[in-house]
Amino acid sequence: DIVDFNKFFNRIIDRFEMSKSKNVEFQRHISETPCYVELDTDKITQVIDNIISNALKYSPDGGYIRFGVTAQEGILKVMISDDGMGIPKENVERIFDRFYRVDRARARSMGGTGLGLAISREMIHAHGGKIWAESEEGHGTTIFFTLPYELDEAGEWD
Ligand code: ATP
Ligand code: MG
Description:
Blueprint: E1 2-4, H1 5-19, E2 25-29, E3 36-38, H2 41-57, E4 64-72, E5 75-82, H3 104-110, H4 116-126, E6 131-136, E7 140-148
Parallel strand pairs: 2-4
Antiparallel strand pairs: 1-3, 4-5, 5-7, 6-7
């Protein structure tokens, strides 16, 4: 499907904002200008759902989740940032591995299988994009992913 990514992303965020049970503030840095991307909407919805669920799960009450999108030279870059417990430096790369969870005590109390980000990575790669994380233990985590989009000759949106 070809969708305006900004609208598509906002709708997913709306769904979480309406149903969230935690007191977490959502901050959006998403342009009003349409940004057309070809993607499998079911799969990318699953990716974003998992990233937002994680951000909510690992955020404290009173925290925030920040959402951003930038588009440059045929690459759309999405970021979802939280100010939660974070991930120790030596483990950041491994969160995209199957069944990997940062620590078992944390995993037990939080539920889940540890597959969410491994599946997300496969889906982003299948779309020609990349996904990575930056995190500081005790301060928060940011997940980034990219998706390519088509520019016409003038470098304008199609
Ligand atoms: P599932 O998504 O299958 O329900 P999960 O959320 O534990 O389970 P992933 O989404 O793959 O699995 O995440 C892997 C691990 O990475 C998590 O168990 C958690 O330890 C860590 N993690 C992911 N996102 C965050 C985040 N925003 N803040 C802190 N830790 C995180
Ligand atoms: Mg998850």
